[in-house]
Design goal:
Blueprint (H helix, E strand, L loop, with lengths): L3 E2 L2 H13 L4 E6 L5 H13 L2 E6 L19 H10 L4 E3 L3 H4 L18 H4 L3 H16 L3 E5 L3 H13 L5 E5 L19 H6 L1 H15 L5 H13 L4 E9 L15 E8 L2 E8 L2
Parallel strand pairs: 1-4, 2-3, 2-5, 3-4, 5-6
Antiparallel strand pairs: 7-8, 8-9
Helix pairs in contact: 6-7, 9-10
The structure holds adenosine monophosphate.
Adenosine monophosphate binds next to helix 2 and strand 5.
Length: about 280
């Protein structure tokens, strides 16, 4: 059985024991409801470290008032089975009261980056992310922490925070895992009906269009965004939150889409908000 640690004190002690034995530690923070995207991070962590710790914590601080905190899927037993199968060594599953004891009032603001893209429609989201990731990094003190490109803005915020605050960890970003149709795997895909799952393919289709326009020598960001919009709005259940082409570190809009820039979209499919992105090559 995969050990599930729930207290900050115990996880610190376990990590201390690993260190005493000169073992390296890889860390994969998640909110659970695991899928192949999460497992790809764990597999990579296992290849590169002696021990792999996976956190499962549905972080209340990163959900807005009208968001899906209470209905977010929680599937611990299945998650543990999947994690055992890919060689994780330990799960850290703290209670919110363990992470945020009474009186907790600290935040981490990665200014400017937190306001762009998803930050506009999810105010406070990236402060919640930054606080929880920083706290988890302190508790687990891994050599390497693994994140998915799927949440591109999150990776930019975390890399900036780790650099600005001199956190002693290597951050690795791994590619997006998609289903056969191109839909980026996400725990929130569980909310989609069968027709919505088909409509949701428009995110990746629009991103593929952006890539092919670049390859055809069309760099005008506005033109690309307009073509993408057309693809997305052809789906009846789709409402666009944003289509942006940005610099990968500053997340500022670029007028011309060039190699290394990121094309990012957020689209509501029915009631479910989905995000996706590609890095232009
Ligand atoms: P979450 O449980 O949604 O907080 O995600 C935990 C980690 O898994 C984050 O670093 C995500 O970016 C990553 N992740 C989520 N979906 C995917 C995916 N489809 N491919 C690769 N990584 C992913």
């Amino acid at each position: 059985m995969l050990p599930v640690i729930t207290s900050a004190r115990d996880i610190k002690q376990k990590i201390k024991d690993f260190r005493t034995n000169a073992l390296t530690v890889g860390f994969v923070p998640t909110m659970g409801a695991l899928h192949e995207g999460h497992l790809s991070l764990v597999r990579q962590a296992k290849r590169e470290n002696d021990k792999v710790v996976v956190s499962i914590f549905v972080n209340p601080l990163q959900f807005g008032k009208n968001e899906d905190f209470s209905k977010y899927p929680r599937t611990l037993e299945r998650d543990c089975e999947l994690l055992s199968g890919v060689g994780a060594d330990m799960v850290f599953q703290p209670e919110p009261s363990e992470m945020y004891p009474p009186g907790f009032c600290t935040t981490v603001a990665v200014e400017r980056l937190e306001e762009r893209l998803c930050g506009k429609s999810r105010p406070g989201h990236f402060r919640g992310v930054a606080v929880v990731v920083l706290k988890l990094l302190h508790l687990v003190s891994p050599d390497i922490a693994y994140f998915g490109q799927k949440d591109f803005q999150q990776t930019a915020v975390i890399k900036r925070m780790v650099s600005d605050l001199s956190v002693d960890v290597t951050i690795k970003i791994l590619p997006i895992v998609r289903n056969a149709g191109g839909l980026a795997l996400s725990s929130r895909n569980a909310y989609l009906s069968e027709t919505e799952k088909i409509d949701a393919l428009c995110l990746y289709q629009s991103l593929t269009k952006a890539q092919s326009m670049g390859k055809a020598g069309i760099f005008d960001a506005r033109k690309i965004a307009m073509e993408m919009e057309e693809i997305i709005l052809a789906r009846s259940s789709a409402i666009i939150d944003y289509i942006s082409i940005v610099h990968p570190e500053t997340l500022e809009d670029v007028p011309e889409a060039r190699s290394g820039n990121v094309v990012a979209v957020a689209v509501r499919i029915g009631k479910t908000r989905l995000i996706d992105n590609v890095i232009l090559s």
